[in-house]
Amino acid sequence: xxxxxxxxxxxxxxxxxxxxxxxxxxxxxxxxxxxxxxxxxxxxxxxxxxxxxxxxxxxxxxxxxxxxxxxxxxxxxxxxxxxxxxxxxxxxxxxxxxxxxxxxxxxxxxxxxxxxxxxxxxxxxxxxxxxxxxxxxxxxxxxxxxxxxxxxxxxxxxxxxxxxxxxxxxxxxxxxxxxxxxxxxxxxxxxxxxxxxxxxxxxxxxxxxxxxxxxxxxxxxxxxxxxxxxxxxxxxxxxxxxxxxxxxxxxxxxxxxxxxxxxxxxxxxxxxxxxxxxxxxxxxxxxxxxxxxxxxxxxxxxxxxxxxxxxxxxxxxxxxxxxxxxxxxxxxxxxxxxxxxxxxxxxxxxxxxxxxxxxxxxxxxxxxxxxxxxxxxxxxxxxxxxxxxxxxxxxxxxxxxxxxxxxx
Length: 408
Ligand SMILES: Cc1ncc(COP(=O)(O)O)c(C=O)c1O
Description:
It is a single chain. The chain is an alpha/beta fold. The chain has two domains: 58-256, 3-Layer(aba) Sandwich (Aspartate Aminotransferase, domain 2); 259-406, Aspartate Aminotransferase, domain 1 (Alpha-Beta Complex), CATH 3.90.1150.10. 38% of the residues lie in helices and 13% in strands. The longest helix is centred in the middle third of the chain and has 20 residues, at 259-278. The mean pLDDT is 96. The structure holds pyridoxal-5'-phosphate. Pyridoxal-5'-phosphate is lined by residues 83-85, 109, 152, 156, 181, 183-184, 203, 205, 215, 217.
């Protein structure tokens, strides 16, 4: 005998919208979609007809977010993955096969190096590190089987810049692709595809979303290899299970609504703080690409200019929300400084709405030998800030108080 409650609860009820258009996108958490016929299911699953069948293959919230990322980066194709690392893994599995060689920057995010060194090496793919700041060295390291060059727009934590135009030219001369991790910049600061990159990764878990409440990645593909690479990317995202959650995609799309003002505000605060900290005797050295003293300042002015990012020519060049400085002294000084600064929490991530601090020697670069770290300019007293949306005065006052209290 049918049971009204038991039978009704699992059913869908369609609510008519009477032609109303919601001002913000809906969330589609459905794991699976109804099919009208076997023919339709086959066409949709095969990609010959638009429409959705299974969330892991594609879903409207990922498609909407991907389309926004595609337009932001002026890419041919954008795909949304479950994390920034998933976007990097997706790029690697789609571009590489046994016997291939990868040239990777010696300043990459630690997990990216680990992925290539420990994971992809098991599949017969070799990766070698090169100093991407030295284009002659890069040129000399290409091999006949080099298929991919991996660099970051702004490296962690010393904020050195890769010359993306030059790297793209070198890669293309050797018939290789250039993959750029743009996470520290975001498209508001730099658009690597415009500069010649083939693939761009954004960890959406950082400033792209900007609210510190989700994990996602985006992979954008430029024009270089056309549809063959795009076919492999769209196949790999579903077969390797890199897919994203609708709720996270919906949140990230909402985060992107304010991307430009957030990055502009944080960049302007970062520049002001960099200038002020440079004047303080308690700070040994300030690293910020917007400072004339930064070794890559001229390159930053070119790569991050409004002309290169497609913003209004009268807009200020944005140099990003990341700022690093060295304290005099050692780990003990850094520990005292961190513990005396409750207004700026020690969170080993970036792109949160509030200003946060990280200590690279004990977090992102902890597995590196001290001598190797120091060669890259990372010391036990190195502090990295991810600037948030507070006023520069609030952050400055907190930093000033702790620095003065350190009493060197
Ligand atoms: C530069 C860079 N790339 C990629 C990632 C990975 O992103 P996710 O944490 O979203 O996997 C991170 C994470 O910290 C990062 O800093």
